[in-house]
């Protein structure tokens, strides 16, 4: 068994014991081992908290940790990441929780995994270092190619050694999908890197429903919109869920979504004018969102109370009143 398995298995027990906010979407008990789904592509009802995305089929059994018997995360069948093929090379080591060092023909390249983040960096980094040791990796670019630190921003696939399988028989294993499916990472797309958000959100929803990895730890549960509680999270990346009580588009084009009676102190979502058309085109404007339960993700700042700014719609999910009918967007 991989040396990092105990860390993932012990995640819920070792984390902080702070009480989780009430969350209608996260009340499902862990289901223990799961049956292999075969013979059909499951429909949307197989994944009750899922956006429109390619169907997923689990090809290995796992326990509530989200790990297969060999210690690797259970791997769903998903299409490989789409985009432009990038560099290939051998994994050298980790330069951060989600940053890999790759030995390419042109030298050592640092690669930041696109579209994900992790609130459990130590566990994620240890697992990645262990599982990727000795593997050949290939990059796929689906958005911005370099960040301000000149790291490659890419989706990463690992060539599977003899005796192991990837997402589809002998296909390479998509690293972001494996991490999200096991609850070792969560989706955090960006306006210039969001091509695979729908598929990854679907994997995250299933991992959360089954309380895998981080989702078994109350400290990493989805937050409610209580302003006093969210004030404690200022300066961190969070997922927040609540009902829009007031929604307005100013003459400037900026949109505000308010989640309480006093916009000067309650939790608020801001969508700047330059980004608002993306939401309006998807029927996610103030009129459509007023009174709806939504889930947003991003960096919490203080601006007349706790606030998250959205610059693209992949960071906003519509949550149906019936948890079983929820559809992230």
Word description of this protein:
By secondary structure, this protein is of the alpha+beta class. It has 8 helices and 17 strands. The chain has helices at residues 5-9, 11-14, 121-132, 175-181, 197-209, 227-231, 273-281, 286-289, and strands spanning 57-58, 76-77, 84-96, 99-104, 107-113, 116-117, 136-141, 152-158, 173-174, 186-187, 237-243, 246-249, 255-258, 268-271, 293-302, 306-309, 316-319. The strands form 4 sheets. Strands 11, 12, 13, 14, 15, 16 and 17 form a 7-stranded mixed beta sheet that branches. A 5-stranded mixed beta barrel has the order 3-4-5-8-7. A two-stranded antiparallel ribbon has the order 1-2. Strand 15 (293-302) and strand 16 form a beta hairpin. The longest helix is centred in the middle third of the chain and has 13 residues, at 197-209. The protein starts with a helix and ends in a 10-residue tail after the last strand. 42% of the residues are buried.
What's this entry about, in short?
The protein is α+β, with helices and mostly antiparallel strands and 329 residues long. It has eight helices and 17 strands.
Oligomeric nature of the chains: single chain
Structural class given helices, strands, pairing? alpha+beta
Give the helix proportion (percent range): 10-25%
First-to-last CA distance: 37 Å
């Amino acid at each position: 068994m991989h040396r990092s398995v105990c860390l993932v298995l012990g995640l819920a027990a070792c984390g902080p014991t702070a009480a989780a906010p009430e969350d209608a979407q996260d009340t499902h008990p862990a289901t223990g081992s799961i049956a292999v789904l075969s013979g059909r592509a499951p429909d949307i009802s197989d994944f009750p908290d899922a956006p429109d995305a390619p169907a997923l089929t689990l090809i290995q059994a796992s326990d509530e940790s989200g790990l297969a018997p060999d210690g690797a995360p259970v791997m769903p069948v998903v299409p490989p990441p789409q985009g432009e093929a990038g560099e290939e090379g051998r994994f050298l080591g980790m330069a951060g929780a989600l940053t890999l060092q790759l030995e390419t023909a042109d030298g050592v390249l640092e690669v930041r995994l696109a579209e994900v983040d992790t609130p459990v960096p130590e566990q994620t980094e240890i697992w990645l270092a262990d599982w990727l040791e000795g593997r050949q990796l290939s990059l796929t670019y689906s958005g911005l190619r370099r960040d301000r630190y000149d790291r490659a921003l890419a989706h990463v696939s690992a060539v599977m050694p003899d005796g192991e399988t990837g997402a589809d028989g002998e296909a390479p294993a998509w690293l972001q999908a494996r991490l999200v499916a096991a609850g070792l990472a969560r989706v955090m797309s960006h306006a210039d890197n969001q091509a695979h958000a729908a598929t990854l959100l679907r994997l995250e929803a299933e991992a959360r429903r089954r309380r895998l990895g981080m989702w078994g730890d109350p400290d990493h549960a989805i937050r409610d919109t209580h302003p006093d509680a969210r004030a404690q999270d200022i300066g961190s990346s969070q997922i927040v869920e609540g009902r829009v009580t007031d929604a307005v588009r100013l003459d400037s084009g900026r949109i505000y979504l308010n989640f309480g009676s006093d916009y000067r102190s309650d939790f608020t979502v801001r969508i700047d004018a330059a980004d608002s058309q993306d939401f309006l085109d998807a029927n996610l404007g103030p009129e459509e969102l007023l009174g709806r339960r939504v889930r947003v993700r991003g960096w919490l700042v203080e601006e007349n109370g706790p606030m998250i700014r959205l610059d693209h719609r992949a960071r906003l999910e519509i949550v149906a009143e019936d948890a079983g009918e929820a559809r992230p967007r």
